[in-house]
Write a structure and sequence with these properties.
The chain is built from 39 helices and 31 strands. With 1496 residues, it is of the alpha+beta class.
Length: 1496
């Protein structure tokens, strides 16, 4: 090991100069809230930026019993104040009190109406100087999140100029780029029961007043303003009503408004509680504050305007009553629980101060302060006079931004951040572990959360010093005595850790020096040098001033912890002695109601008292003295259960251990003379001994049984490890003790290979005991148990226990491996998420509680005490000079404390470095091919609840107006239908219009977060025995109870409640899965679906509008599966549903050709002019988060009005079976979502089967019969119907082919969906248990059966087509035969006609000469054609001559024609020698040519 650097101490003059300079800088920082700037926050500030990728959480803070909670963005969600009458009184934002809603609100950065603290208005238009309206700034993204001293939250945002929105949808306005001008810091803290919230706007740069030169940074407007918002929707609560689950009904007019321009005051006259808010602005020089004028918000999207219509209707009351009844009721409003918040949003305008030298000139800033107070006795009038507001210096000192002024003062310093930083730096310099910052932050934050938030003084008349430990006062608070014990154990251990620092210093240092101002310079230098050299060696690298600061703060924290423990003891003793106290009437019942229903938790009372007494042997506690007369009668009358108490199904091992520890604690307290001697009698000793043996037998038996390790084993192991700490047994690894049995069970446990069903499954005998929880690996404390085992064993015991299976790694390295597993459960404030269970009750109950962090923090302290740190092998560095050698954080050797926790090397170290991890994996896989469950995949994302479950028109209206809506993807197909909204955005009115256009043919089925369900909602799974499933809720306007269903009429809501269900967020309604059934889809409803209700469905909506059957699937942060299928149905023309948009020729409606009506075989509805056969599409789209445990589903099935009520039973059936699937596969939601979609596909297949079957049946009625072939031969010529029948068959075939093409396309898409989904289901088949796999196969088989039925319809359609084809071919042949017979008859007639024509031709030739001669001789004589004197002889002779010539020409007509034709060649190629005029002329021409040119 390299020796630490030997730094020479500074001289007195140097120290004085440094001291004066630091004092001057500190004074400057304290003014004008400069300490909120990034560079001035100092060592007391802890940044959580390096943990922003982890699951987000709220930040709880408080002091003196007053507490508040901010969401992840720093906005105020809750406020609690102590009350003598009610214990605690609460005010919270407008969201449901369910665990589901609380966690979702805690993880958001922008809470909307769920918050009521100081914030910058987000819906402002750009600042207009003329009208003085709007805001000059708007918030950007959160850039910093942290806290001061692990106690007071701080959030920092980027600040942008509030420019005009850019162009949208064809507008010519160009988008204005964002201009960042500075930062906005929000800080919250408590003082004297008042919650102060500070918002500081700071410019990044500015104008130098002296030089008049502008920097490179953009500047805010010189005369700008900012609009601030305060108040909002507020619920008032009482602790007694939360713990009693009590919702009283009463008047809605209990809220009284007494607000003025200076004070927003909301009063609940029934509960006598008021919330008072004042807002101030720091003046230019920071010397004083000025009250800002508060005005009610006039924005139409504020809660009072948006929800006024609901509050005025009675349906609103019933809706929210149901909304509260489906979650654990927790709010007493005297107006039906959660249903009547006070809607008061006030705004104030803060004008910017002009830049000057006084306010920094080049570094402008504006500071606003809100004072929020929750008080009882609200009837007292409030003065408008401004109360005294803490100055910047006061807040600086209250928060302990800087530690003590001098090293010799010993005030009650609360600068815990400085103390932990010093401890962290030493550990970081001496270890190779990359998790030291995480460990310190976890322990420090857990300590502050317990002391500042969970401790509540004076509940229900208890002493003021009594402190009850509330398990998170903002989410179903109660006094968990089990959690109280583990938190007290953590307080004890961290007290000993801090006291050890002081003890080591006291034992090594010289006497305490006096104040530096009262001593001479020489003595000062000598004493300070002595202090520097006398500090313990392990802190010698640090300056003595830092060391003394650390020790002073540690001393203060020890005193603080002891005071808290004293108060807790007082509360526990008062709880035990409640029968002897003069408590108010009903105090016992109220106190019992504070505690959980598990009566075994009361055993922790005596365990806690004894653990404290045993741990502080030299401390004289005052409260235990009150137990000196505690006898058996007092025990019987106390809340501690009797020995024969029936604890139900609680693990018997746990009860045995608790009883043993309880009576062992009584015996030990009696030995210390705290309890009377009765409790150390021989009878008591025998009883304790018997319980000890029983506990040993129970624990060793469970270890010997080699049963699979389960989540329930963790609490047994955790209790077993207490045996040594409580002094009940001596730990011996070789002996059979409860501790050794648990160690053996933990070392021998195997990783989970099979997942359990999420609900109890019945067997032939009814319900059997089954595990329904997830893998034990998804519980943080199960991994903590493995770390704790290493702290129980000594080095020799560890080597002995790991002999033969240990590699080259050391115990310290193995500790690092298992700590890294625990750190997978960290959240964004470096505390632990207890588990990653997807079962809502198990998971959400511990998300915002600190028990798990306290347990692991105790383990870390044990590691620090028992296992030495791993010394670094690289050269060390001084915090003053920095690291030597390699300083790359990625090399795993050095990390600058300011950079935080580096997780780069964690997974590599966990996965590859150590042979222990390899051996465990081999052990997991030994003897089987089944790989263990990938438990890391259960890890929740940064925001567990999807954004679309927390966003709504009510809570986040700014997300549903420009410019946000401009970035929503809308397919081109829907661009003309789903038009983007105007600048006002969407609101309640748009929902009403859309549903009215849809004629309210719209229904909702909600599967709620798991709660205890009434008997009528129990369904059967696979054995005929009822099981309990989560509640379901139905919304449908004017619906009646479905025929044959068990759902009561009351579940079907009115139209206002249907609107409310769409208007409010899903988390506020405790909805985990929502199914929308749409029976009419107008354009307005498409628009609301695309932008508000279900934006993930736009692609499927596009296919639906186009009437295009298609399956689409997308896997990513959002898992989406959608399918559109088509069918042909018979519908009335007057109410034709489809097609209406984007239709293609192939899907045009089919109308019957009425001219062929007589050819139909039977009368059919299709023959009526009132009906058409229309192409009808149905669509289903299911979208879930990546893990698959939150879903929204939209089912679009447009039908005629008369069929809507018939679909009601189908809607309930789909929802109930989907509910069953989700709960059975709660640990494998990836499979559940696929099965749910397959179930909906199966329902779609059944619907298509009925539709096609009914349509085909109509066509079967009109196809002609075979009587057409029975016509007799002589009747063929008179049959005119056969042709019409042939035409009708051709028309039917065309329709059937069209139906077949559509059906085949739909089936092909269903097959594609089946292939994709089954592939995903089979990916996780190996990790399903036998019972779970059986249920999976059952649901798949049901779908296969439905699909087979649809395939049979296709086969039936093909058989009809083939039959029609055969009928067409036969009829075509028959008609051809008939046509040939008619042709023969026509040929005979043609021959007869030819003979007659021939006879007439001969007769005409005979009369031709006679007519010609007669015409010639009839020519008048004047024409000189016929000579005079030519008489009868000439006439007769001419006739005879002409007749002879004519007859000769007729006889020689062909040769004469050939004589005048052009010469040609015969077919055989021989020349034609027949006489021919043209040939003769050619021969003569040749003859003469030959004679003229021949030789002489």
């Amino acid at each position: 090991m390299t020796e630490p650097w030997d730094l020479d101490p500074p001289t007195a003059e140097e120290e004085e100069a440094v001291f004066e300079r630091e004092q001057e800088e500190a004074s400057c920082k304290r003014e004008c809230f400069n300490w909120l700037t990034h560079e001035n926050r100092g060592a007391a500030y802890i940044s959580y930026n390096q943990f922003n990728h982890l699951p987000a959480t709220s930040f709880e803070f408080g002091a003196d019993g007053f507490a508040g909670a901010c969401n992840n963005g720093g906005e105020l969600l809750h406020f609690s104040a102590p009350s003598k009458e009610h214990g605690l009184i609460f005010a919270r934002g407008a969201f449901s009190s369910s665990l589901y809603a609380c966690i979702s609100r805690a993880q958001t950065e922008y809470g909307g109406s769920a918050t009521f603290g100081l914030r910058i208005a987000r819906d402002q238009v750009p600042y207009d100087r003329k009208s003085s309206k709007g805001s000059s700034f708007r918030l950007g993204e959160m850039i910093e999140r942290g806290c001061f001293n692990y106690r007071w939250p701080l959030n920092e945002y980027s600040l942008f100029l509030n420019n005009s929105p850019g162009g949208r949808d064809g507008s010519t306005v160009e988008a204005t780029p964002d201009i960042e001008v500075g930062t906005c810091t929000r800080f919250s803290y408590f003082k004297s029961g008042v919650c102060y919230q500070v918002i500081r706007l700071e410019a990044r740069g500015g104008r130098d007043i002296a030089e008049e030169e502008e920097t490179v940074y953009h500047l805010p407007p010189w005369d700008g303003q900012v609009v601030l918002e305060i108040g909002g929707s507020v619920y008032f609560q009482l602790l007694r009503d939360i713990t009693a689950n009590n919702n009283e009904n009463g008047s809605n007019n209990r809220i009284k408004y007494e607000s003025s321009t200076k004070c927003l005051r909301i009063i609940d006259m029934d509960l006598n509680i008021s919330l008072e808010v004042r807002l101030y602005q720091l003046n230019a020089d920071g010397s004083d504050v000025v009250a800002l004028e508060l005005k009610p918000s006039s924005n139409r999207d504020t809660c009072e305007d948006r929800q006024s219509s609901f509050r005025e209707s009675s349906s609103f009351q019933s809706t929210i009553t149901g909304h509260g009844s489906f979650s654990v009721p927790s709010v007493t409003n005297k107006g039906a629980g959660d249903q009547a918040p006070t809607h008061l949003v006030y705004r104030a305008t803060g004008k910017l101060h002009p830049a000057s030298k006084e306010n920094g000139g080049s570094r402008r800033s504006e500071t606003f302060i809100a004072a929020i107070r929750l008080v009882q006795n609200a009837g007292t009038a409030t003065s408008d006079e401004d109360p005294e507001i803490p100055s910047s210096e006061d807040m600086h000192d209250d928060v302990w931004v800087e530690p003590a002024k001098t090293i010799y003062e010993t005030p009650k310093s609360q600068a815990t951040g400085v103390m932990w930083e010093t401890i962290l730096q030493w550990r970081d310099l001496h270890t190779d572990s990359m998790s030291e910052f995480t460990e310190i932050s976890l322990m420090a934050r857990c300590l502050e959360k317990i002391l500042q938030v969970d401790l509540v003084p004076g509940i229900y008349g208890t002493e003021d010093k009594a402190l009850a430990v509330i398990s998170n006062p903002f989410m179903h608070p109660n006094v968990s005595l089990r959690s109280l014990f583990w938190k007290v154990r953590f307080l004890v251990k961290i007290h000993h850790f801090l006291a050890g620092l002081e003890k080591n210093y006291s034992s090594r240092s010289s006497p305490k020096p006096s104040n530096i101002k009262g001593e001479k310079q020489g003595s000062e230098q000598g004493e300070r040098a002595d202090i520097i050299h006398d500090i313990p060696a392990f802190f010698s690298e640090f300056d003595g001033f830092d060391r003394l600061q650390m020790l002073n703060i540690a001393t203060s924290q020890c005193n603080r912890i002891r005071d808290a423990i004293e108060g807790i003891l007082s509360f526990l003793i008062e709880l035990v002695l409640i029968s002897k106290l003069n408590s108010p009437e009903g105090y016992f019942k109220l106190t019992r109601s504070l505690c959980p229903p598990d009566q075994s938790d009361f055993y922790y009372i005596m365990m806690t008292i004894w653990y404290v007494v045993k741990s502080f042997r030299k401390v004289k506690w005052k409260s235990p003295d009150r137990l000196r007369n505690f006898g058996l009668e007092d025990m019987v009358n106390s809340c501690i259960p009797e020995d024969n108490h029936n604890f139900g199904v609680v693990d018997r091992r746990k009860i045995t251990l608790l009883k043993w520890y309880h009576y062992g604690s009584l015996l030990s307290l009696a030995d210390r003379d705290i309890l009377p001697s009765y409790w150390r009698s021989s009878t008591m000793k025998k009883k304790v001994y018997g319980l000890s043996n029983a506990a040993t037998v129970a624990c060793t038996a469970s270890t010997a049984s080699n049963s699979h390790y389960s989540v329930d084993d963790e609490i047994v192991d955790r209790l077993s490890f207490l045996a040594n700490e409580l002094g009940m047994e001596e730990f011996d690894a070789t002996a059979e003790t409860v501790t050794s049995a648990s160690i053996q069970r933990i070392r021998g446990r195997e990783f989970t290979q099979y997942l359990n069903p999420g609900v109890l499954l019945p067997n032939e005998r009814g319900y059997s005991f089954q595990e329904t929880s997830g893998p034990w690996e998804i519980h943080a404390l199960c991994h903590n148990s493995r770390v704790h085992v290493l702290t129980l064993e000594s080095e020799s015991e560890y080597f002995k226990a790991t002999r033969g299976c240990r590699g080259s790694e050391t115990r310290e390295e193995e500790v690092a491996v298992y700590k890294n597993k625990v750190y997978r459960f960290l959240n964004s404030e470096v505390t632990l998420i207890p588990c990653w269970e997807r079962s809502p009750t198990k998971m959400r109950s511990g998300w915002l509680q600190s028990e798990a962090a306290a347990v692991h923090g105790s383990t870390l302290l044990d590691i620090h005490k028992k296992i030495p740190v791993i010394r670094k092998v690289s050269p060390k560095s001084s915090p003053q000079t920095g690291p030597m050698g390699s300083s790359n954080p990625a090399d795993g050797r050095y990390r600058d404390p300011a950079t935080g926790f580096i997780t780069v090397a964690s997974d590599i170290f966990d996965r590859d470095s150590l042979s222990t991890q390899f051996r465990e994996i081999l052990k997991e896989l030994k003897g089987t091919e089944v790989r263990p469950v990938d438990w890391v995949s259960f890890r929740p994302p940064r925001q567990y609840y999807p954004d679309n479950f927390t966003n709504s028109l009510e809570d986040t209206p700014h997300l549903f107006r420009p410019p946000v809506t401009d970035n929503v993807f809308i397919p081109a197909t829907l661009s003309q239908i789903a038009k983007r909204p105007d600048p006002a955005g969407f609101g309640q009115h748009d929902l009403v219009v859309a549903l009215e256009k849809a004629r309210w043919l719209f229904s909702i089925s909600d599967i709620l977060v798991f709660q205890q369900t009434p008997g009528w909602r129990r369904r059967e799974l696979s054995g005929g025995t009822n099981t309990k499933l989560p509640n379901m809720r139905y919304f449908r306007h004017g619906a009646k109870a479905a025929v044959g269903r068990k759902a009561p009429i009351s579940t079907f809501k009115k139209k206002d409640e249907l609107i409310r269900a769409l208007f409010d967020s899903l988390v506020d309604q405790s909805v985990q899965h929502r199914i929308l059934h749409i029976y009419k889809l107008p354009d307005e409803l498409i628009r609301m679906l695309a932008f508000v209700v279900h934006p993930e469905a736009v692609l499927c909506l596009s296919n639906h509008v186009l009437h295009t059957p298609r399956f689409s699937f997308h896997k990513g942060p959002t898992w989406t599966a959608g399918i559109t299928v088509g069918s042909w149905i018979l519908s009335k023309s007057a109410t034709l549903v489809s097609p209406r948009r984007g239709n293609v020729m192939a899907n045009e409606p089919v109308e019957f050709p009425f001219e062929l009506k007589d050819a139909a075989r039977e009368e059919s509805d299709i023959m009526s002019p009132k009906y058409h056969v229309s192409f009808f599409v149905s669509s289903v789209v299911l979208s879930t988060n990546a893990f698959g445990d939150f879903s929204r589903c939209t089912i679009i099935s447009e039908v005629d009005d008369e069929n809507v009520e018939a679909k009601q039973g189908e809607q309930l059936e789909v929802a109930e079976i989907s509910n069953e699937i989700w709960q059975v596969f709660v640990h494998q939601p990836q499979t559940a979502r696929c099965l749910v979609f397959l179930h909906m596909l199966g329902t779609l297949c059944i619907k298509l089967r009925h539709q096609y079957h009914d349509t085909i049946k109509q066509f079967e009625l009109i196809i002609p019969s075979t009587n057409v072939f029975l016509v007799e031969g002589k009747e063929w010529n008179r049959d005119n119907l056969s042709l019409s029948q042939f035409q009708l068959i051709l028309w039917c075939l065309g329709c059937l082919y069209k139906f077949q093409n559509s059906l085949k396309t739909s089936i092909a898409n269903i097959v594609d969906a089946k292939t994709e989904l089954l592939e995903q289901i089979h990916e996780q088949a190996a990790n399903r248990s036998q019972s779970l796999q059986g249920l999976c196969q059952k649901y798949i088989a049901n779908f296969e059966s439905d699909m087979v039925e649809l395939t049979q319809v296709n086969e039936h359609l093909e058989s009809n087509i083939e039959s029609a084809m055969r009928f067409k071919d036969a009829l075509s042949g028959t008609l051809a035969l008939r046509d040939s017979r008619v042709g023969l008859t026509q040929n005979a007639t043609s021959l007869e006609q030819n003979n007659a024509i021939q006879a007439l031709t001969y007769l005409t030739i005979g009369y031709l000469p006679l007519g010609l001669i007669t015409a010639i001789f009839a020519i008048p004589s004047e024409q000189n054609v016929v000579f005079q004197g030519m008489g009868q002889g000439w006439f007769v002779g001419s006739i005879l001559i002409m007749s002879a010539v004519t007859y000769l020409v007729v006889a020689w007509l062909n040769p004469i024609a050939d004589f005048f034709k052009l010469p040609s060649t015969l077919e055989n190629g021989r020349p034609d020698n027949r006489p021919n005029l043209w040939k003769g002329l050619g021969d003569i021409r040749e003859y003469f040519r030959s004679r003229d040119f021949s030789p002489c």
